[in-house]
Amino acid sequence: MKIQRACAGAALGLMTVVGLAGCGVVGGGGPKLDRPYLEVRRAHATVLTEKGHAPEKAGPPVPPGDVKLVTYTSGGLMLAAWFVLPPHAPADDIPAIVFFHGGFALSEDDVKECKPFLDAGYAVMLPSLRGENDNPGHFELMYGEVDDARAAVQWLAAQPRIDKGRICTFGHSVGGGISALLSLWDDVPVLATGSSGGLFPYTVFAAWSEILPFDRRNPLERQLRLLLGNTGDMKHKHHAYIGSEDDLKSVVGSAEAEIERTGAPLRVTMVDGDHVTCLAPAMRAFLRDIQKRK
After folding, report:
1. Roughly what angle, to the nearest 10 degrees, separates helices 144-157 and 174-182?
2. By three-state DSSP, how is residue 117 classified?
3. CA distance 191 to 122
4. Nearest-angstrom CA–CA distance, 106 and 132
5. Where are the domains of the chain?
6. Could you tell me whether strands 266-271 and 238-243 are parallel, antiparallel, or unpaired per DSSP bridges?
7. Contact 138, 130 (CB under 8 A)
8. Which of 127, 253, 284, 294 is deepest in the core (most CB within 10 A)?
9. Are 278 and 250 in contact (CB under 8 A)?
10. Cα–Cα distances in Å, from 16 out to 13, 24, 48?
11. In this structure, what is the dihedral angle of CA atoms 42, 47, 50, 53, given to the nearest 10 degrees?
12. Shortest CA distance to 148 belongs to which of 109, 208, 93, 106?
């Protein structure tokens, strides 16, 4: 079973760190960065207090059915992924979605969850990330994994049958957080990014204290793992879907205030369901939204 973590609203103390402009909390995010997100992110090397595998124990991903096992490279890491074409796929110009799973391991359930995308004619790549499914690398919680996500999108864009102008990303829960962070990067060839239950507030790390591989007292480590608070630096549109019964709905007001202040290409939409059951309606809504952009 997937590990699903709820967010908590605990207030955490702040400390002065190079890369932060001060201690003022920015909407659903944390302290404002003193330079553009990518400038700070590219100059910062995360400091891991624990080095090991992802919290969810799972072996190498064995692809089900017609799903193809592929490998992609992220930095010096060779990582596993699944790739599946839609039924009756054309010879070329196939639109595609990179799907980032919830929890901390890739499983057969993730392919089943992607059925709406496949039925709509999209090829789907499902990456496993560093430290997951016996992959090399250490679990970093939405940091190095974002580098893996960028590499996955770039791998997909290099495939001969894929329409490079119609690549999107989508993720659920932690995978949604990763997809959201991709909207801040200028080197990913995406039409749009999307998430279901993946728009996290700065306080979420209090709820994840048992699995954090970094010092949560360091505000820069936290802020670089979040979209909120950094939306003024977005490079791509992000569609964030949140369930009407999900605890994350508490972040909607601050997210909307941040959007108004920064003019960010972030759209927040409420859909039916809790943190888990909102996934299917979120996928359907995302398909409607990206198909409007053809």
Report:
1. 70
2. helix
3. 13
4. 8
5. 57-200+230-291
6. parallel
7. yes
8. 127
9. no
10. 10, 11, 19
11. 10
12. 106
Q: How far apart are CA 51 and CA 135, in angstroms?
A: 14
**The two three-digit tokens of residue 38, written as one number:** 């990518």
State mean pLDDT over 96-121.
97
Higher pLDDT, 8 or 129: 129
Q: Which residue has the tokens 């967010």?
A: 7
pLDDT tens per residue across span 112-164: 999 999 999 999 999 999 999 999 999 999 999 999 999 999 999 999 999 99
CATH class held by domain 57-200+230-291: alpha beta
The DSSP annotation for 239-265 comes to EEEEETTSGGGGGHHHHHHHHHHH--S
The CA distance from 52 to 132, in Å, is 10
Confidence class for position 10, pLDDT limits 50, 70, 90: very low
Q: What is the pTM of this model?
A: 0.91
175-197 as b/e, with b when 16 or more CB fall inside 10 Å?
A: bbbbbbbbbbbeebebbbbbbbb
Q: Is 275 left (phi over 0), alpha (psi -120 to 50) or beta?
A: alpha
Q: Which long-range contacts (CB under 8 A, 24 or more apart) does 84-90 make?
A: 84/111, 84/114, 84/118, 84/123, 84/124, 84/126, 85/123, 85/161, 86/117, 86/118, 86/119, 86/120, 86/121, 86/122, 86/123, 86/124, 87/118, 87/119, 89/121, 89/123, 89/161, 90/161
Q: How many residues does the chain have?
A: 294
Strands (E) located in the chain: 20-25, 31-33, 68-74, 77-84, 94-100, 123-127, 162-172, 192-196, 238-243, 266-271
Nearest-angstrom CA–CA distance, 268 and 195: 10
What is the C-alpha to C-alpha distance for residues 214 and 121, in angstroms, rounded to an integer?
40
